[in-house]
Amino acid sequence: MRVKYKITEELQEEVKSLLKQTRNSVVKERLIAISLYVVNHMAMKDIAVTLGRNSDTIGRWIARYFEDGIDGIQDNRGGDHKSFLTNIEKEELKQIIVNTYPIIYKGWDGKIIVDLIKNRYGVTYTRAGVYALLKSLGITHKIATKVDPKKSEEKIATWKEDIKKN
Fold this sequence. Notes:
Blueprint: H1 9-21, H2 25-38, H3 44-51, H4 55-68, H5 87-99, H6 110-121, H7 127-136, H8 153-165
Helix pairs in contact: 1-2, 2-3, 2-4, 3-4, 6-7
């Protein structure tokens, strides 16, 4: 059954105004479809062809706009990407990475952290997911230094003192 929407001059002006104000590209595309329907009186199938979308999608956007206004066509894709780890686990992981050093490796990298999370928490992350997690924890990559990790700070300090004396 086809739904007949009541199109008034106020509605047309509202859509034109919203189209000028909107900066989000997803919402703007939806408003263009609604504008073509409300202002230009195009058929939904013609709008679908013009925008390269499915006519069901165009119909959904228009229906949502008539039901809920601008709120009905907001970009809600993606959600909030909740972490697989709890806040306590994330804080613990952060402390491990910041304060320790892997025994048999030269340093932390994505693959090692993926393995650490899998073994310790039973959760599988991709390397890209690990890097996003580290970014959310405020941990950035470190650039290697030229200091040999086998040298102790005490030996380095003694060496510097000897140089100053000579």
